[in-house]
Amino acid sequence: MDKKMQNNSKPSSGQDAEAESKDVPNMEEKMQNISKPSSGQDAEAKSKDIGNFHNSLQELRDLRSQLHYAADYCESTFLNTKEKKVVMENTKEYICRAVVTVVDHLGCVSANINGIVSEANAFSEAEIRIDCLKQVVTTLLH
């Protein structure tokens, strides 16, 4: 397989699993900190989550262009070679790895969206609790 094609996909590794396991405590910390009053750090965290989401989307866009390039490359190579079977096998192998990479990136985008939605829901729940407390205080004062 051509080295240009090999560089276009990122095989998953044990490092990905380690990174995911390191993210778990961060999610727990975020969930514990949701009930605390908002601060500059919360705004920074939200900004970081949105930035991560945009980065994940950009990586998906980059994968799309890489896949288009690979498809064009495979097509031209297939048309200009006598070893069509070898080109077909290399193309199949590349496509399998590329699909795994795309699915992995979709998981990242999904996780980022879930994080943003969870924070928004927690904020709404906090507003509801505050409104309930206001009603209780108002009722007790009258």
TrEMBL record:
Residues 19-31 have a biased composition (Basic and acidic residues). Belongs to the ABI family. It comes from Malus baccata. Residues 1-15, 32-41 have a biased composition (Polar residues). Involved in regulation of actin and microtubule organization. Part of a WAVE complex that activates the Arp2/3 complex. Gene3D superfamilies: 6.10.140.1620. This is Protein ABIL5. InterPro entries: ABI (IPR028457). Residues 1-48 are annotated as: Disordered.
